[in-house]
Structure formats: C-alpha cells, structure tokens
Amino acid sequence: QKEECLAAYKTLRGRATLAEVLDFWTAHHPDGATATLAEMVKAWIDDQTKNGLRPGTIKLNRQRLEGLARTLGAETPCATITTEALRNYLDGLKVAPVTRNGSRRCLRAFFQFCTDREIVLANPMLKIKPVKLDAKMPAFMDVRLVERFMHKLDELHPESVPAFAIAFWAGLRPVEVQGQYTMESPEVTQAKKAVETANETLTNAKKHGKQNAVTEAAQSLEAAREALRQAIATQDRQRDTGGIVGGLQWEDVNLRDMVIRVRPETSKTRSARLVDISPNLSTWLVKYYKGTGPVSPSPVTVKRHRDAVVKSLKMKKWIPDIPRHSFATYHFAAHQNRDKLAAQMGHSGGSGVLEKHYKGLATAEEAARFWGILPAGAKQQSNAQKEESAQKRA
C-alpha cells in the first residue's frame, strides 16, 4: 500500500491530493455504476413509453441517445461519463445550433433520469449551457404561392386538400391533422442494427488491409442496406392502412358553428382548444366534407402528395411547418391580436413571443388576399356571380 501511495504521488506531481483523487473516483463509481449507457437508454425509453409520451418524441429521443452510445460506447457505465465528455460530444455534432440545443435538452433529461435512480450522483449535463441562437424571421409562403400550391394539390391529389387547407387557414400542426405513427417496427429496428454491424465490420476489414475481407464486408453491408430498404418499404405500406395515433376526425369539424375542435389526445400540448373556421376555409372543407373518419390520409401519403406538388411547381424545397407559420403571419396581419392568435394556435408560451415573431411580416392587404383564397371552381363561380350582378345593376 505504501508503494502504491508513492507511485500515486509521483504520478500526480502535486496536482491533487489522494483525498481529492478518491473523491473524484467515488463520484464516478457510486452504487449502480455497472448500469451501462445501453441499459439506461432502454430503461428511459421504456419509462417514456409507459408514461404515454408521443411516439415521435420517443423516436427522436432514442435516435439522439443511440448517437451518444455509438460515440462513447454502449457498454460505458453511465456513472463514468463526465461533463467534458458530453461537451465534446455535443461540440462534435455537425448540426445546426437549434438541433444541438435539442440534443442538449434530451441528454439533460436522460441524465436526470439516471440521477433520480441513483445511477449517477449528479447530472453531468447541468453545467453545459445552450448555444445562443440568432433571431430569425419565420418562413412563410407568399399569398400567390399558397394559392398555386392549393390549386395544384386540388388538381393532382384532392384527397389531401382538407389536411393542407386546415394547416394553412386554421394553423393546426401536422401531427394534429395527420396524426403520427406508433413506434418503429421491430423489423426496421433490427435491420438498422444489422447495417451498423456491417459498417463496423467493413471498417475493421479496411484497417487490416485484407482485400478479400473488405470485398466480403462490402457485399454484406450492401445486403444489409437492401434489407433495411425493404423493411422500411413494408413498414410504410402497413402504415398507410393503420398504426396511426391521433389525427383530426371529421366529427370534430363543425361547419355549422364554424369551429374545429382539437382534442387533448390529438393536440401536441395535450390540451383541447377550438379553432375558428374562416369563410374561405369553410368553402374548401364543404367540397370534401365526409362527416366521419379521418380528415387526412396517412402521413406517408400526405408527404408523397406534397412532394408531387412541390416538384410540379418547381419549388426549391418544403420548409416544415410553413403552413402554420403562414397562418400565424397573416392572422396577425389581419387581426393585430396576439392573444387571439395564441389561443387559435394552441401556443404554450406567452403570446408576446408570437407578436415578436410575426408582427410586421405581412400587410393587411396581403392578409386579405390570403383569407380570400378559394378553390378554383368556387373562385370562378364567385366572379361569374359578380359579373351577373353588375350586369343587372347596369
């Protein structure tokens, strides 16, 4: 023991005492130190599933933590993971600042879960601050582009028209209109792991430089990737016919009272709200109203229809949530009422945030044109009626 102490003192060279070294070791090896990162990730995901978190949220959390496990090692004891290691991991992510902050929130929640279960003594994420974000103007669609998009959608894929009409003129989130899928199928999960294993095998083969092994590993990787593509295709076909949680139902579209009821089980914030149906939205919905059943096709189908329209109109790209941002922009321009906008959108933060983001982005004239967009036939009919009335007056 004396020899060990002497060797330790020589290694430390006065940078720390043995007591300080012992404190550090104890902090990173408490009871439960054998709980690995992989084990605790599974425990956290299981806990979230049991508590009814949205499938999309669970999927994103799992993806973020699987990335951490690949970097630090799935068998790494959670209690040995330091703040510095986590900071280096986040700094090494080649993602936008907002995405980095999202990963930070996920890791902070995960390690708090570990702390609450006494797997680690203290949350190592507490000292890692979020990246400061520059204020950016929310993206919204020009009125003419909204009109062209809806008319082309009406022409190519009319079954998705109600979903996009509600997104543009009622401001509902995609998940509130379309619903979301249940958890990823076991076949897809297994196929993804097979691709990861094949990638590792190929990397090791290249390190050792044996051409036969490299060729064989490359073939195995391609086979694994093809199996993954097939598993995803099968999952998508199954999802087109079921496996969707939530989503707006025609029973909640009240054209008599001109409101849409967003139920707690459908709402992202898990709270009910009533959203006004504008006169032009009513015209779009009357055309396709069914009375019962889902308002929207499956998310996969909606995306396919949307991409077809984007390609047909030669749009550069589709920005997520742009219908909702467009709704907020033109609603504030028309009403100048941030509290009403917050209530309509089901915004969980202060209404001042909405005013800061959407005030001054559009004029009252642009808003009037936005709220006046009608289906092509309805617009033509309206113009014909105006001409007839003008002739009668003449």
Folded structure, characterized:
With 394 residues, the chain is mainly α. Helix content is 62%, strand content 4%. It contains 18 helices and five strands. It has helices at residues 2-12, 18-28, 37-50, 55-72, 83-92, 97-116, 143-156, 161-170, 174-178, 186-208, 211-239, 279-288, 299-312, 322-335, 338-345, 351-358, 364-370, 376-393; strands at residues 180-181, 244-245, 253-254, 259-262, 273-276. The strands form two sheets. It has a three-stranded antiparallel sheet with strand order 3-4-5. Helix 10 (186-208) runs antiparallel to helix 11 (211-239) and helix 14 runs antiparallel to helix 15. Mean pLDDT is 86; it is low at 381-390.
Secondary-structure topology with pairs:
Blueprint: H1 2-12, H2 18-28, H3 37-50, H4 55-72, H5 83-92, H6 97-116, H7 143-156, H8 161-170, H9 174-178, E1 180-181, H10 186-208, H11 211-239, E2 244-245, E3 253-254, E4 259-262, E5 273-276, H12 279-288, H13 299-312, H14 322-335, H15 338-345, H16 351-358, H17 364-370, H18 376-393
Antiparallel strand pairs: 1-2, 3-4, 4-5
Helix pairs in contact: 3-4, 7-8, 7-13, 7-17, 8-12, 8-14, 10-11, 14-15, 14-17, 15-16
Characteristic key phrases:
single chain, 394 residues, mainly alpha, 3-stranded antiparallel beta sheet
